[in-house]
Request: fold
Amino acid sequence: MADAQYFLQALHLTGFRAYLQPKTFNFSKQRCLAIFAPNGNGKSSFIDALEFLFSDEGTLERLGLRAINNNAGVTALAHNLAEGTKIAPAVSVDIVSGKTIASGSRAASGSNRPMPPAVAAMRKCFTVLPIIRGHALRTFVENHQPERRYTDVATWLQLGPLVEVQKNLRALRTQVKLAAEDMTSLQRVDTQLSKETLQALKNWDTAAVLAHANTNILAPLDKTLTLAELKVADPAYIALATRATAEEKQVGLAGLRQMRNAAAALWSTEIDVDGETHIKGTIVEFEAAVMALATATTREEEERGKAANSVFEALWNAAEPVFAEGATIPQVCPVCITPIENTTAGSTETIRGHIVKHLDELADYANAKKTLTASQAKIKQAHMYLVASLPGLIGLLADETELKVALVAYQAAIVAWREGVSPSSIDIVAAIPTLLTELGQAIADIEAKQGDHTYAKAKIKIDNLFGLDAEYGLALCTQKELEVLSENLTAQATMISGEIRKKVQALLNMLQTPMNDIYRQIQGAEAAPIRLELPSEDDTNQQRLHLVIDFAKNRTRVQPGGYLSDSQIHSIALALQLAAIKQFNAAAPVIALDDIVTSYDADHRRAIAALIATTFDDSQIFITTHDERFFNYLKDQLEAKTWQFTRIIGLDPTFGPRFADHKVSDEMIRARWENGQSAANEMRQAEEEWLLGICRDFGVSLRIRPLEKAYSYERSELASALAELLNDTKLEPALIPGVNNRFLTSLQKGEIENFGSHFQDGPYGDGSVGDEKARWAEFQAFKMQFACPKCSRAKFQRPFALKKPVCAHNGCEAQFEFKQAMPATGAA
Amino acid sequence: MDEKGNLIETPAAFLEALGETLSEKAEIDIELADILKIHVLKTKPAQNAVTQAKTAILKLAAERAAAPKAEIDNG
Reply:
């Protein structure tokens, strides 16, 4: 058993668009609704509510996105006074499926506007969005580029994702193709090659690179060393690597220079500007320091001995002024009171000589002591330098050489030395000059032979070229793989695009027949069929949709835009969408039509009303229109049991749209008079509505109306038909006392005046309010005669077999007869 | 599934089936088809789906180029 269809049972708008105060549309009894309103009265807000409710993002397509200083976007969903009046903008809905009713509400403000589950369940049934707006149809007509049309149709058919896939595939193909043609990686190798070869080579060329390696890198080292190819297995490279390794183990030019410097640091000779040769180095300086220390030590010891007698320095210093020249010489020793002549010195002169001698000896000792201290500092420094410099040469000398052995022993002795005679350096000092001479010669030989070239450096350069070769090869290989992938991508993209095309074309084919059926219902049976065609297979741009017609034998497969009228093209768009909705939305047969007849003439509006009544009688349809005549056609042709009609009589900015019954009421007429306005149009409308209803109830015969006859005479057609029926059935309405019965007379003549409007055929009175009131009273009195003689109800029917109408009320079914006319006082 | 059934399948189902069909083709580049399935054959592709797919294809090309194979002549 198939799942039950979804229908809307009620729609509630609060603070949404034009609706500030809550408004409920109830579809439980009559599932379809037609709203008539002049422009700017909020009728489209009803359709907006449906679009908003079922939109993925909770917005309206026509609002666009909110921008700076622009209150469009979601902000425009809410009524402008909603926030100030603390009304939460929302659209609520009751959805019925079988016997199940589900409700949901969707907030129309704020960033979080989730779709209620009940709505989402119904939304899943919409393969095609069931909202058709007249302005979108115009867009379809005006922007009839095949690419745009393809996108539109694909969107209607919910093929947007497929169009996106095709677009992405096209972009991807382009980008991958560009990447396959991109030479940046190879150019990067060329740049590096140029740098590596000092601008000798600008572009990678294996033969040229080989020649460069052999000529500029290997030949300076060994002319017999020649690479046959840039590969590590090449014999020349293997030899190069071997020699580089050996070179690392040998002492190279730099090593020789380092060794020479290390040896010279220990011991070397230097010739000054005067041509004198000086010996220098840490060994020499150490040994000299040792000798200087020894000398200073001996000297200090000697002077210290001499100064021992002068230990009473203070005494001598004190005695010096006592026995100075010119001073009063004491007669006795100031210390022991021995008479001077009895002392060992025996005289003042002798004492004076002792004082001078001892004071001199004290000064020499002080000098010797100072020299010793300096020598001790010097030896420490020289020792430290020598200890530090010895490892340099030891480390650079090959093992087990005599010099190295001697140096190691000497180093041990030096490190252990604390004082005394310096360790012997005779062998070392004898060997170093020879070493220096040999090193100088070796350095001179190498410099003369290969300059700055070494096998190690050559290997590095060759290795760099190998790296570039590998990089170039990889880049080249990657590019080739990319080319293959680009070709494969083109093939796969073509296949995918082809499958999408087939699906779209199949959909279009399924739509073509019902679309043309609908198209012919609107435009007439003779209308040339429309074909929906994609571009041919070999066309590179598949995202196009051609609408073609066979306009004439010599104009086949032509674009309608050049041959059809705006209305016809408009009909194509409408027919295509309606066909798609009917085809694919069977689970939720809901259609919303917003002002779709603006480009149609009266015939086509009636045809569209008939189309809705016949082809879509099983759907739930919502129609808004500002076209009153189309509204009347709908009322005329659509079944009252499934349709409700309403009109917006004004937009109250602080409330919302004000609705009225779709029929013009006596209150509406009186309200206009009270406002000092003419009610002529409303009266005409009321008469027409009544005529339409009574003609339908009485089952009058309407003649086939000639196409060239304007619609302004339609009431007369109705009046004629009614008059004819009344005449045939001998039913004669009574005269209305107090008035001149002009309405009845005109009705009997099959004529209806159109006073006070631009449809007017002939004058009726002077068009004053008084005349309007008289006319209205006459009409009301006349209308009241059409009541059941038994139950006074005013609803009739005329079964096919009956000549006269009967009361439509069950249980009454009294045959219609005119009552006695009442005085025309209704408008007084 | 009849023709109408096929036609009214969702875009997601259609694309998924299309991806499977693509992979099942003998002569197809499977790895490339997988990239298209992952990044492109989606009803709601990433905003930078094309960039992602291109990056994946470039990576695939690099991997294939680096894979051991008969040496090529750079000259």
Remarks:
- The longest helix of chain B spans residues 49-66.
- Residues 3-66 of chain B form one domain.
- Confidence is low (pLDDT under 50) at residues 1-5 of chain B.
- Chain B touches chain A at residues 3-4, 6-8, 10-12, 14-15, 18, 21-22, 28-29, 32-33, 36, 40-45, 49-50, 53-54, 57-58, 60-62, 64-66, 71-75 (CB under 8 Å).
